[in-house]
Design brief:
Elements (H helix, E strand, L loop, with lengths): L1 H23 L3 H29 L1 H20 L4 H15 L3 H11 L3 H32 L9 H15 L13 H24 L4 H20 L16 H31 L4 H7 L1 H21 L2 H17 L9 H26 L34 E2 L4 E2 L1 H7 L7 H5 L39 H6 L1
Antiparallel strand pairs: 1-2
């Protein structure tokens, strides 16, 4: 529901941009700020929100995010001018930053088996398709009936329902050793992103060679360099740059940035093309994008199942081909472009985006389960309602992108022969039968290691399979 409410809001806002432009007399750059003010704040606070959830409780943080997002939606519907709308969109983003990372943390700590987790993430990713399907149609209906302000009303009942359901069904969980706050790193992240986004949006209006824009890009370069120098020197940094030494993690991050940048550009430009160039109504434009949403809903869970069987390589290749092909079909659009050509490009693009979400999330999610929100690697999650949940395995940092499983041959040669069952480790079920979760017992506790370290100690350079810890 959290992913639906966020995705629904973004797609509805894009459909409403032409109406907002006419009503509030906004320029194209003003419309960009309506969209990007939200994403800028969201990106700046994601890691901080994850750490806050680890420290104060994931369920509490999740509910606070839902409440903030709902209140921000109400205020957006009352915005008297473009400036106030941008401000209230930023408030929405503060709440939105507490939703997706915390929800992912809950999923990662609930589904500890790699295959189950991949399937669960596939279903979770299908919510993106649901929001893509509902957003344009619901937005078109609301704009045609009550105006663009009505698009923000949809979030209110969904947000209230999600708060109630979270209180009923989601157990509270915390990281036993949450990271310390990093205010300097947080400020550097905000300055880095804000200066870059401002320069890109305002560059065409002020001129790319103007002192203001050059100063923005210079500030971006200085802030980024300072961030890269400062963060590795902290014991508990806001951004743990060690993760980027892992090729699967870095690759998944680059793919995620590319995929969502493509989706953001598509949603923004497509609605302006359909309504301003072709003269369609908001509802007509929303109905035309329905095939894109439909194939996203269908292919997202299929991608998750494929990952659990064959790994993430095939879905990523398919996603790259489909998204690139769909985008290329849209590069030569004219006002007289056939509807069939548009629909074909939408379907191809939607297949690619539906397939890409599960592998990038699963590849980045192989980190230890307690770190999913922002805690330290190796921490175990406390779940009072359901007992301790086994960690996701520190071996994920050395995962094989080609198979989506721990790099078994390295682990095999790192331990004495006979201690590691190579084939069972490759399947991710060492010392476990199908569907069995080994409880945390005395065998896991050593004087120099707490039970949280079964999956491997962060920064130690070694990864201990769960089965080996049990035999010890």
């Amino acid at each position: 529901m959290s992913l639906v409410i966020v995705g629904l809001d973004n797609t509805i806002v894009n459909v409403a941009l032409p109406s907002i432009q006419r009503d509030l007399h906004a320029s194209v750059s003003g419309l960009q700020w309506v969209v990007d003010a939200y994403t800028l704040v969201l990106a700046s606070l994601l890691v901080l929100s994850g750490s806050t959830a680890d420290r104060f409780g994931r369920r509490s943080t999740f509910q606070a995010g839902l409440a903030t997002f709902t209140i921000g939606s109400l205020l957006c519907s009352l915005a008297p001018s473009l400036g106030w709308l941008v401000v209230f969109r930023m408030l929405q983003a503060v709440g939105g930053s507490m939703l997706n990372p915390v929800a992912m943390s809950i999923i990662v700590n609930t589904f500890t088996d790699r295959a189950e987790r991949a399937r669960a993430i596939g279903v979770w990713g299908a919510a993106v398709g649901v929001s893509l399907a509902l957003g344009p149609v619901v937005g078109g209906l609301l704009i045609a009936s009550v105006g663009w302000r009505g698009i923000f009303w949809v979030n209110i009942p969904v947000g209230v329902a999600a708060i109630v359901l979270t209180a009923l069904f989601v157990p509270e969980s915390k990281a036993p050793h949450p990271r310390r706050l990093d205010p300097v790193g947080q400020v550097l992240v905000i300055v880095t992103l804000a200066s870059l986004i401002y320069g890109i949006i305002e560059g065409p209006q002020h001129g790319w060679g103007s002192p203001e824009i050059i100063g923005c890009f210079a500030l971006f370069a200085v802030a980024l360099a300072t961030l890269l120098v400062y963060e590795p020197r902290r014991r508990e940094p806001l951004l743990d740059l060690r993760f980027f030494r892992s090729a699967p993690f870095s690759g998944a991050t680059v793919i995620a940035v590319s995929a969502f940048a493509a989706l953001g550009g598509f949603l923004f430009l497509n609605t302006l093309y359909l309504q301003d160039v072709r003269g369609y109504s908001a509802l007509h434009a929303g109905l035309l994008t329905l095939p894109l949403a439909a194939v996203t809903v269908v292919f997202a869970p299929l991608s998750g199942r494929m990952i659990s069987i064959r790994g993430p390589r095939i879905p990523l290749v398919v996603a790259g081909i489909c998204m690139s092909g769909g985008a290329l079909m849209l590069t030569g659009l004219t006002a007289q472009q056939s509807t069939g050509w548009l629909l074909a490009s939408y379907v191809l693009f939607g297949i690619g985006f539906g397939v890409v979400n599960a592998p990038i999330t699963n590849t980045r999610g192989v980190r230890d389960a307690a770190r999913a929100g922002g805690g330290r690697v190796g921490d175990r999650v406390h779940q009072p309602a359901g007992g301790p949940v086994a960690g996701g395995g520190g071996g994920g940092l050395r995962g094989d992108l080609g198979h989506g499983r721990p790099d078994a041959h390295r682990l095999h040669h790192r331990q004495p022969r006979g201690l590691v069952d190579h084939h069972r480790l490759r399947a991710g079920r060492a010392d476990r039968g199908p569907g069995h979760q080994r409880p945390v017992g005395a065998a896991d506790r050593r004087p120099d290691r707490g039970p949280a370290d079964v999956g491997g100690r962060a920064g130690s350079g070694r990864v201990t399979p769960p089965g080996l810890a049990a035999r010890r």
